[in-house]
Design goal:
This protein is of the alpha+beta class and about 375 residues long. The chain folds into 2 domains: about 220 residues, Rossmann fold; about 130 residues, OB fold (Dihydrolipoamide Acetyltransferase, E2P), CATH 2.40.50. Helices cover about 25% and strands about 30% of the residues. The protein contains 8 helices and 20 strands. The strands form 4 sheets. Strands 6-7-8-3-9-10 form a 6-stranded mixed beta sheet, with helices on both faces. Strands 13-12-11-14-20 form a 5-stranded antiparallel beta sheet. Strands 15-19-16-17-18 form a 5-stranded antiparallel beta sheet, with no helix packed on it. A hairpin with a 2-residue loop joins strand 11 and strand 12. Helix 2 crosses helix 3 and helix 2 packs parallel to helix 4. The N and C termini lie far apart (about 50 Å). The structure holds adenosine-5'-triphosphate and magnesium ion (MG). Adenosine-5'-triphosphate (ATP) binds next to helix 1.
């Protein structure tokens, strides 16, 4: 079995501004990706993800700061001299060449013999669970199979770091979900450091050891594991972007140990104050749809509010309830459907509650529906 050794990738105060542009594509990135880690950058379109990868591959040099691979400063080291390989969104395979020729392409450039290249291609096809197709034309493969060939080609040059730029986005949903597990498996088998970029949170959260969430201009808001991002977001952007969330904006009226009270248009809300907000500060209380309960089913004494049922969406194992709040916004509640839950009537007023523990207070920031 092929086993490369993964290397660490460090961004130390890295900023990047393209010549002739007004703003940064990457702003003060500080990320230490561990050797052998599956690390993803997640962020909306145009936030600077591809730019970050190009800084690692050597197609770009940072305007400020340094990129290190395996502890070595990469400044002045060209793309061909770096221990990296890149997989592009469109895969960039050669459709009129055989699978083996595609996989061996980078090796041919390096002067590896034809017999060696074929041997390597056969081994790599085993590794990516696509054995026996070395003589097929790439144009005759399915999307998922091409994906595997692209990964095999990336791994053929034995990179310490594999850079993947939204490689699944061209696949249909089912295949994309299947390939998530496959990519993770391949990464574990090889030990190569994977730096993966995507705007799809499902991908980032399911595959990665850690995720860096980016806002515009290449600012990295938070670097954490999937469950930390979901349960303990550090900024309003992360709370809003990762998973579904309800946002109630207001001002802090009182702090109380690990908790604080926020005055919002929907009422006074108590929540966790992990970032030590002060009285008077503008903030948002975030509550996940699954944390909103019917008051009659709960023992919570905080955050009991009266909302009006706007409409329902029955989704099998759960029911999504859209509620109108006194503040004039829509609040989303998700109820598990155990078969006994009576459907709520549109237009009725219900009492809901959510515990202070499940309510996250974060400094005010632009979100999609606060
Ligand atoms: N060669 C370039 N010259 C000038 N500006 C550029 C160049 N490449 C990218 N940009 C700008 O830098 C910013 C970040 O671009 P980048 O391609 O890194 O974003 P991205 O997160 O990969 O986006 P997407 O998800 O759409 O691929 C954008 O505002 C983009 O317009
Ligand atoms: Mg991109």
């Amino acid at each position: 079995m092929l086993k490369s050794v993964g290397e660490a990738v460090e961004f130390n105060h890295v900023s990047m501004r393209y010549p002739g542009t007004e703003s940064n594509a990457v702003t003060d990135a500080n990320v230490h990706i561990k050797a052998g880690e599956f690390f993803s950058f997640l962020g909306p379109s145009g936030c600077g993800k591809t730019t970050l990868l190009r800084l690692v591959s050597g197609f770009l040099d940072p305007t400020e700061g340094e990129v290190r691979i395996g502890g070595k400063d990469m400044r002045g080291i060209g793309p061909n001299k770096r221990p990296t390989a890149m997989i592009f969104q469109n895969l960039a395979l050669f459709p009129l060449m055989s699978v083996a020729q595609n996989i061996g392409f980078g090796l041919e450039v390096r002067g590896v013999s034809k017999t060696e290249r074929l041997k390597k291609a056969v081994e790599l096809l085993e590794l990516v669970d696509l054995p026996g197709v070395e003589n097929k034309m790439v144009g005759d493969l399915s999307g998922g199979q091409m994906q595997r060939v692209a990964i095999a080609r990336g791994l053929a040059v034995e990179p310490a770091v594999l850079l993947l730029d939204e490689p699944l986005s061209a696949l249909d949903l089912k295949l994309r979900q299947h390939m998530r597990t496959e990519l993770r498996k391949i990464q574990r088998r090889t030990g190569v450091t994977f730096v993966y970029i995507t705007h799809d949170q499902g991908e980032a959260l399911t595959m990665s050891d850690r995720v860096g969430v980016m806002t515009g201009q290449g600012v990295i808001d938070q670097i954490a594991t999937a469950d930390q991002l979901y349960n303990e977001p550090q900024t309003a952007f992360v709370a809003d972007f990762v998973g579904e969330n309800n946002a109630f904006a207001g001002a802090v009226t009182e702090t109380d140990g690990d908790y604080a009270i926020l005055n919002t248009e929907s009422g006074s809300l108590k929540g966790r104050n992990r970032l030590n907000l002060n009285s008077g500060q503008k903030a948002i209380a975030f509550v996940r749809p699954e944390a909103i309960l019917l008051a009659e089913d709960s023992t919570a004494v905080e955050n009991i509010l009266k909302f009006t049922v706007k409409n329902l969406s029955f989704e099998g194992s759960f029911i999504t309830v859209f509620l109108d709040t006194p503040g004039g916004q829509t609040c989303v509640m998700k109820q598990n459907n155990d078969g006994s839950t009576p459907l709520m009537q549109t237009g009725t007023e219900i009492k809901v509650c959510f515990s202070a523990e499940n309510t996250q207070l974060l400094p005010y920031g632009e979100v999609s529906y606060a």
